[in-house]
Amino acid sequence: MNDSMRAQRFYADTGTVVVEDVAIPIAGPGEVLVKVAFCGICHSDLSLLDGTFPAELPVITQGHEASGTIAALGPDVSGWAVGDRVVVAAGRTCGTCAKCARGDAANCLSPSIMAFGYDGGWAEYTVAQAIGLTRIPDNVSLEHAAILADAVSTPFGAVVRTANVRVGESVGVWGVGGVGTHIVQLARLVGAAPIIAVDIKPAVLDRALDLGADYAFDARDPELISKIAAATDGENLNVSFDAVGVTTTFEQALAAVAVGGKLVGVGMSADTPSLGSTSDFNFGHRQVLGHLGYHNEDIGTLATLVSRGRLDLSRSISQIVPLDDVQRGIDMLKEPEGNPIRILVKP
Ligand SMILES: [Zn+2]
Ligand SMILES: [Zn+2]
Protein backbone atom coordinates (compact mmCIF):
# COMPACT_ATOMS: atom_id res chain seq x y z
CA MET A 1 0.00 0.00 0.00
CA ASN A 2 1.10 3.50 -0.89
CA ASP A 3 1.59 5.68 2.20
CA SER A 4 -0.32 8.73 0.95
CA MET A 5 -3.96 9.25 0.02
CA ARG A 6 -6.35 11.89 -1.30
CA ALA A 7 -8.39 13.65 1.37
CA GLN A 8 -10.63 16.69 1.64
CA ARG A 9 -9.27 19.22 4.14
CA PHE A 10 -11.09 22.19 5.67
CA TYR A 11 -8.81 24.99 6.87
CA ALA A 12 -10.70 26.90 9.57
CA ASP A 13 -8.60 30.10 9.52
CA THR A 14 -9.17 30.76 5.80
CA GLY A 15 -12.46 28.87 5.51
CA THR A 16 -11.14 27.00 2.46
CA VAL A 17 -11.84 23.49 1.27
CA VAL A 18 -9.13 21.64 -0.66
CA VAL A 19 -8.56 18.05 -1.76
CA GLU A 20 -4.90 17.16 -1.24
CA ASP A 21 -2.43 14.35 -0.56
CA VAL A 22 -2.00 13.45 3.10
CA ALA A 23 -0.44 10.51 4.91
CA ILE A 24 -2.65 7.44 5.28
CA PRO A 25 -3.51 7.32 9.00
CA ILE A 26 -2.33 4.41 11.16
CA ALA A 27 -4.82 2.35 13.17
CA GLY A 28 -3.89 2.39 16.88
CA PRO A 29 -4.87 -0.14 19.56
CA GLY A 30 -8.54 -1.09 19.27
CA GLU A 31 -8.82 0.67 15.91
CA VAL A 32 -9.08 -0.37 12.26
CA LEU A 33 -8.16 1.34 9.01
CA VAL A 34 -11.20 1.51 6.73
CA LYS A 35 -10.99 1.96 2.96
CA VAL A 36 -13.88 4.38 2.44
CA ALA A 37 -16.42 3.31 -0.20
CA PHE A 38 -18.92 6.18 0.23
CA CYS A 39 -19.38 9.05 2.67
CA GLY A 40 -22.46 11.28 2.81
CA ILE A 41 -22.65 15.07 2.79
CA CYS A 42 -24.73 16.32 5.74
CA HIS A 43 -26.12 19.73 6.66
CA SER A 44 -23.92 19.67 9.75
CA ASP A 45 -20.89 19.55 7.45
CA LEU A 46 -22.20 22.80 5.93
CA SER A 47 -22.60 24.19 9.46
CA LEU A 48 -18.86 23.77 10.09
CA LEU A 49 -18.07 25.41 6.74
CA ASP A 50 -20.30 28.44 7.36
CA GLY A 51 -19.30 28.86 11.01
CA THR A 52 -22.66 27.91 12.59
CA PHE A 53 -20.70 25.19 14.39
CA PRO A 54 -17.31 26.41 15.70
CA ALA A 55 -14.18 24.63 14.44
CA GLU A 56 -12.59 22.37 17.05
CA LEU A 57 -9.40 21.90 15.04
CA PRO A 58 -7.47 24.24 12.69
CA VAL A 59 -7.60 21.70 9.84
CA ILE A 60 -9.77 18.62 9.49
CA THR A 61 -11.06 16.06 6.99
CA GLN A 62 -14.87 16.31 6.97
CA GLY A 63 -17.55 13.67 6.38
CA HIS A 64 -19.15 11.62 9.17
CA GLU A 65 -21.34 9.18 7.24
CA ALA A 66 -18.96 6.54 5.93
CA SER A 67 -19.13 2.95 4.74
CA GLY A 68 -16.28 0.85 3.44
CA THR A 69 -14.16 -2.24 3.90
CA ILE A 70 -11.55 -2.92 6.56
CA ALA A 71 -8.06 -2.41 5.09
CA ALA A 72 -5.94 -3.10 8.18
CA LEU A 73 -6.40 -4.01 11.83
CA GLY A 74 -4.62 -2.14 14.62
CA PRO A 75 -3.28 -3.97 17.70
CA ASP A 76 -5.78 -5.62 20.08
CA VAL A 77 -8.66 -5.92 17.59
CA SER A 78 -10.54 -9.20 17.47
CA GLY A 79 -13.66 -10.32 15.65
CA TRP A 80 -12.90 -8.30 12.51
CA ALA A 81 -10.94 -9.17 9.37
CA VAL A 82 -9.49 -7.30 6.41
CA GLY A 83 -12.19 -7.03 3.74
CA ASP A 84 -15.17 -6.93 6.14
CA ARG A 85 -17.92 -4.53 4.94
CA VAL A 86 -18.68 -1.98 7.63
CA VAL A 87 -20.38 1.24 8.63
CA VAL A 88 -18.23 3.54 10.73
CA ALA A 89 -19.89 5.17 13.77
CA ALA A 90 -19.99 8.96 13.51
CA GLY A 91 -18.57 9.42 16.99
CA ARG A 92 -15.97 8.02 19.38
CA THR A 93 -16.09 7.29 23.05
CA CYS A 94 -13.27 8.47 25.30
CA GLY A 95 -12.67 5.07 26.89
CA THR A 96 -11.59 6.60 30.20
CA CYS A 97 -14.54 8.48 31.78
CA ALA A 98 -16.64 6.98 34.60
CA LYS A 99 -19.30 5.73 32.14
CA CYS A 100 -16.78 4.16 29.74
CA ALA A 101 -14.91 2.59 32.66
CA ARG A 102 -18.19 0.92 33.68
CA GLY A 103 -18.77 -0.45 30.17
CA ASP A 104 -21.51 2.11 29.47
CA ALA A 105 -19.83 3.56 26.37
CA ALA A 106 -23.20 4.62 24.87
CA ASN A 107 -23.38 7.29 27.59
CA CYS A 108 -19.72 8.39 27.42
CA LEU A 109 -19.26 11.72 29.23
CA SER A 110 -16.80 13.14 26.69
CA PRO A 111 -17.52 11.70 23.26
CA SER A 112 -15.88 13.14 20.16
CA ILE A 113 -17.73 13.61 16.87
CA MET A 114 -16.25 12.42 13.58
CA ALA A 115 -15.28 15.24 11.21
CA PHE A 116 -15.42 17.76 14.07
CA GLY A 117 -13.17 16.29 16.79
CA TYR A 118 -11.12 14.02 14.51
CA ASP A 119 -10.67 13.33 10.78
CA GLY A 120 -13.69 12.04 8.88
CA GLY A 121 -14.50 10.07 5.76
CA TRP A 122 -14.12 12.37 2.75
CA ALA A 123 -10.83 10.57 2.12
CA GLU A 124 -9.60 7.30 0.70
CA TYR A 125 -9.07 5.92 4.19
CA THR A 126 -10.31 6.69 7.69
CA VAL A 127 -9.44 5.24 11.10
CA ALA A 128 -12.32 3.97 13.24
CA GLN A 129 -12.72 2.43 16.69
CA ALA A 130 -13.51 -1.28 16.27
CA ILE A 131 -16.13 -0.88 19.04
CA GLY A 132 -18.06 1.53 16.78
CA LEU A 133 -18.18 -0.66 13.66
CA THR A 134 -21.34 -2.27 12.30
CA ARG A 135 -21.15 -5.26 9.95
CA ILE A 136 -23.21 -4.85 6.78
CA PRO A 137 -25.19 -7.77 5.32
CA ASP A 138 -24.12 -8.80 1.80
CA ASN A 139 -27.45 -7.74 0.27
CA VAL A 140 -27.18 -4.16 1.57
CA SER A 141 -25.23 -1.87 -0.75
CA LEU A 142 -22.35 0.21 0.60
CA GLU A 143 -24.18 3.29 -0.76
CA HIS A 144 -27.15 2.57 1.49
CA ALA A 145 -24.85 1.48 4.33
CA ALA A 146 -23.14 4.89 4.37
CA ILE A 147 -26.30 6.83 5.15
CA LEU A 148 -27.12 4.49 8.04
CA ALA A 149 -24.41 6.36 9.98
CA ASP A 150 -26.50 9.54 10.25
CA ALA A 151 -29.19 10.36 7.65
CA VAL A 152 -31.25 7.30 8.62
CA SER A 153 -30.02 6.57 12.15
CA THR A 154 -30.58 10.09 13.51
CA PRO A 155 -34.25 9.87 12.39
CA PHE A 156 -34.40 6.37 13.90
CA GLY A 157 -33.15 7.76 17.22
CA ALA A 158 -35.69 10.59 17.03
CA VAL A 159 -38.69 8.33 16.21
CA VAL A 160 -37.87 5.27 18.28
CA ARG A 161 -35.89 6.65 21.22
CA THR A 162 -36.58 10.34 21.86
CA ALA A 163 -40.23 10.46 20.69
CA ASN A 164 -40.94 6.78 21.39
CA VAL A 165 -43.70 6.86 18.73
CA ARG A 166 -46.29 4.14 19.38
CA VAL A 167 -48.53 2.32 16.93
CA GLY A 168 -51.55 4.45 16.02
CA GLU A 169 -50.08 7.76 17.15
CA SER A 170 -50.42 10.79 14.88
CA VAL A 171 -47.16 12.30 13.65
CA GLY A 172 -46.24 15.50 11.82
CA VAL A 173 -42.88 16.16 10.15
CA TRP A 174 -41.75 19.70 9.32
CA GLY A 175 -39.19 19.63 6.51
CA VAL A 176 -39.14 16.44 4.45
CA GLY A 177 -35.63 16.60 2.99
CA GLY A 178 -32.71 14.33 3.91
CA VAL A 179 -33.69 13.82 7.55
CA GLY A 180 -37.46 14.37 7.35
CA THR A 181 -38.15 11.79 4.61
CA HIS A 182 -36.52 9.14 6.76
CA ILE A 183 -38.58 10.26 9.77
CA VAL A 184 -41.69 9.74 7.61
CA GLN A 185 -40.53 6.26 6.55
CA LEU A 186 -39.63 5.20 10.09
CA ALA A 187 -42.85 6.63 11.58
CA ARG A 188 -44.70 4.52 9.01
CA LEU A 189 -42.62 1.48 9.96
CA VAL A 190 -43.52 1.77 13.66
CA GLY A 191 -47.22 2.15 12.84
CA ALA A 192 -47.88 5.89 13.23
CA ALA A 193 -51.19 7.08 11.77
CA PRO A 194 -51.85 9.50 10.32
CA ILE A 195 -48.48 10.89 9.18
CA ILE A 196 -48.52 14.51 8.02
CA ALA A 197 -45.65 16.00 6.01
CA VAL A 198 -45.19 19.79 6.03
CA ASP A 199 -42.84 21.58 3.63
CA ILE A 200 -42.86 24.42 1.12
CA LYS A 201 -41.81 22.51 -2.01
CA PRO A 202 -44.55 20.68 -3.95
CA ALA A 203 -42.10 18.09 -5.37
CA VAL A 204 -40.80 17.30 -1.90
CA LEU A 205 -44.33 16.97 -0.52
CA ASP A 206 -45.27 14.60 -3.36
CA ARG A 207 -42.23 12.49 -2.58
CA ALA A 208 -43.22 12.35 1.11
CA LEU A 209 -46.65 11.00 0.07
CA ASP A 210 -44.92 8.32 -2.03
CA LEU A 211 -42.72 7.36 0.94
CA GLY A 212 -45.54 6.91 3.44
CA ALA A 213 -47.09 10.22 4.50
CA ASP A 214 -50.91 10.28 4.57
CA TYR A 215 -51.16 14.06 4.10
CA ALA A 216 -48.81 16.67 2.69
CA PHE A 217 -49.45 20.32 3.57
CA ASP A 218 -47.80 23.57 2.52
CA ALA A 219 -46.17 25.29 5.52
CA ARG A 220 -47.29 28.69 4.19
CA ASP A 221 -50.98 27.76 4.11
CA PRO A 222 -52.75 30.05 6.63
CA GLU A 223 -55.17 27.16 7.29
CA LEU A 224 -52.30 24.75 8.12
CA ILE A 225 -53.07 24.23 11.81
CA SER A 226 -56.80 23.77 11.21
CA LYS A 227 -56.06 21.30 8.38
CA ILE A 228 -53.88 19.30 10.76
CA ALA A 229 -56.67 19.39 13.34
CA ALA A 230 -59.16 18.13 10.73
CA ALA A 231 -56.80 15.33 9.66
CA THR A 232 -56.50 14.15 13.27
CA ASP A 233 -60.20 14.29 14.19
CA GLY A 234 -59.66 17.51 16.09
CA GLU A 235 -56.98 16.11 18.37
CA ASN A 236 -53.81 17.48 16.74
CA LEU A 237 -50.51 15.61 16.76
CA ASN A 238 -49.21 13.19 19.34
CA VAL A 239 -45.73 13.93 18.05
CA SER A 240 -44.40 16.81 15.92
CA PHE A 241 -40.88 16.54 14.50
CA ASP A 242 -39.11 19.73 13.50
CA ALA A 243 -36.47 18.55 11.02
CA VAL A 244 -35.63 22.13 9.99
CA GLY A 245 -34.95 23.88 13.27
CA VAL A 246 -35.83 27.50 12.46
CA THR A 247 -38.27 29.70 14.37
CA THR A 248 -41.22 29.27 11.99
CA THR A 249 -41.01 25.47 11.75
CA PHE A 250 -40.45 25.03 15.49
CA GLU A 251 -43.35 27.29 16.44
CA GLN A 252 -45.73 25.78 13.84
CA ALA A 253 -44.80 22.26 14.91
CA LEU A 254 -45.44 23.18 18.55
CA ALA A 255 -48.77 24.85 17.70
CA ALA A 256 -49.96 21.56 16.17
CA VAL A 257 -49.07 19.39 19.18
CA ALA A 258 -52.04 17.74 20.93
CA VAL A 259 -52.72 18.16 24.62
CA GLY A 260 -50.19 15.86 26.30
CA GLY A 261 -48.21 15.49 23.07
CA LYS A 262 -44.60 16.28 22.27
CA LEU A 263 -42.44 18.28 19.93
CA VAL A 264 -39.08 16.73 19.05
CA GLY A 265 -36.44 19.15 17.72
CA VAL A 266 -34.09 17.51 15.22
CA GLY A 267 -32.97 20.31 12.86
CA MET A 268 -30.61 22.98 14.21
CA SER A 269 -29.83 26.64 13.65
CA ALA A 270 -29.00 29.70 15.73
CA ASP A 271 -32.71 30.68 15.89
CA THR A 272 -34.39 31.21 19.27
CA PRO A 273 -38.09 30.22 18.94
CA SER A 274 -40.64 30.80 21.69
CA LEU A 275 -42.69 28.29 23.66
CA GLY A 276 -45.52 30.84 23.98
CA SER A 277 -47.08 31.64 27.33
CA THR A 278 -46.27 29.35 30.23
CA SER A 279 -50.00 29.06 30.96
CA ASP A 280 -50.81 27.68 27.48
CA PHE A 281 -47.76 25.44 27.57
CA ASN A 282 -48.50 24.05 31.02
CA PHE A 283 -52.28 23.74 30.56
CA GLY A 284 -51.56 21.64 27.49
CA HIS A 285 -48.96 19.64 29.48
CA ARG A 286 -46.86 19.44 26.33
CA GLN A 287 -43.27 18.28 26.13
CA VAL A 288 -40.49 19.75 24.02
CA LEU A 289 -37.55 17.41 23.56
CA GLY A 290 -34.19 18.03 21.93
CA HIS A 291 -32.81 15.20 19.87
CA LEU A 292 -29.27 14.32 18.76
CA GLY A 293 -27.88 11.19 17.14
CA TYR A 294 -28.53 7.53 17.92
CA HIS A 295 -27.00 4.54 19.66
CA ASN A 296 -24.44 2.57 17.65
CA GLU A 297 -26.61 -0.54 17.89
CA ASP A 298 -29.30 1.33 15.90
CA ILE A 299 -27.11 1.12 12.78
CA GLY A 300 -27.24 -2.68 13.06
CA THR A 301 -31.02 -2.60 13.55
CA LEU A 302 -31.39 -0.46 10.42
CA ALA A 303 -29.05 -2.70 8.42
CA THR A 304 -31.32 -5.65 9.33
CA LEU A 305 -34.46 -3.71 8.34
CA VAL A 306 -32.92 -2.85 4.95
CA SER A 307 -31.60 -6.38 4.47
CA ARG A 308 -35.00 -7.91 5.30
CA GLY A 309 -36.88 -5.61 2.96
CA ARG A 310 -38.70 -3.64 5.67
CA LEU A 311 -37.03 -0.30 4.94
CA ASP A 312 -36.63 0.85 1.34
CA LEU A 313 -33.78 3.31 0.80
CA SER A 314 -33.92 3.07 -2.99
CA ARG A 315 -34.79 6.78 -3.32
CA SER A 316 -32.41 8.04 -0.64
CA ILE A 317 -29.22 8.48 -2.69
CA SER A 318 -29.75 11.46 -4.97
CA GLN A 319 -26.26 11.77 -6.41
CA ILE A 320 -22.69 10.47 -6.06
CA VAL A 321 -19.73 12.81 -6.63
CA PRO A 322 -16.04 11.83 -6.85
CA LEU A 323 -13.85 13.05 -3.96
CA ASP A 324 -12.09 15.59 -6.17
CA ASP A 325 -15.53 17.16 -6.83
CA VAL A 326 -16.56 17.32 -3.16
CA GLN A 327 -17.01 21.10 -3.41
CA ARG A 328 -19.62 20.55 -6.14
CA GLY A 329 -21.46 18.13 -3.85
CA ILE A 330 -21.37 20.70 -1.02
CA ASP A 331 -22.72 23.38 -3.37
CA MET A 332 -25.52 21.06 -4.55
CA LEU A 333 -26.68 20.59 -0.95
CA LYS A 334 -26.35 24.30 -0.15
CA GLU A 335 -28.44 25.41 -3.12
CA PRO A 336 -30.63 22.34 -3.43
CA GLU A 337 -31.31 21.46 -7.04
CA GLY A 338 -33.67 18.58 -7.62
CA ASN A 339 -34.38 18.32 -3.85
CA PRO A 340 -31.62 15.85 -2.92
CA ILE A 341 -32.19 13.46 -0.02
CA ARG A 342 -28.52 12.46 0.28
CA ILE A 343 -25.47 13.20 -1.85
CA LEU A 344 -22.52 10.82 -1.41
CA VAL A 345 -18.82 11.37 -1.92
CA LYS A 346 -16.94 8.47 -3.55
CA PRO A 347 -13.17 8.55 -2.83
ZN1 LIG B 1 -24.76 14.64 10.02
ZN1 LIG C 1 -16.14 8.10 27.97
Automatic annotation (TrEMBL):
UniProtKB keywords: Metal-binding, Oxidoreductase, Zinc
Domain Enoyl reductase (ER) stretches: 12-345
Keyword presence, Metal-binding: yes
Origin superkingdom: Bacteria
Cofactor(s) the protein requires to work: Zn(2+)
Annotated transmembrane regions: none
This protein's record includes keyword Oxidoreductase: yes
CDD domains recorded: hydroxyacyl_CoA_DH (cd08254)
InterPro entries found in the cross-reference section: ADH-like_C, ADH-like_N, ADH_Zn_CS, ER, GroES-like_sf, NAD(P)-bd_dom_sf, Zn_alcohol_dh
Pfam families the UniProt entry points to: ADH_N, ADH_zinc_N
GO molecular function: oxidoreductase activity; zinc ion binding
Family: Belongs to the zinc-containing alcohol dehydrogenase family.
PANTHER family membership: L-THREONINE 3-DEHYDROGENASE
Name used for this protein in its record: Zinc-binding dehydrogenase
Native source organism of the sequence: Mycolicibacterium obuense
Organism lineage string: Bacteria, Bacillati, Actinomycetota, Actinomycetes, Mycobacteriales
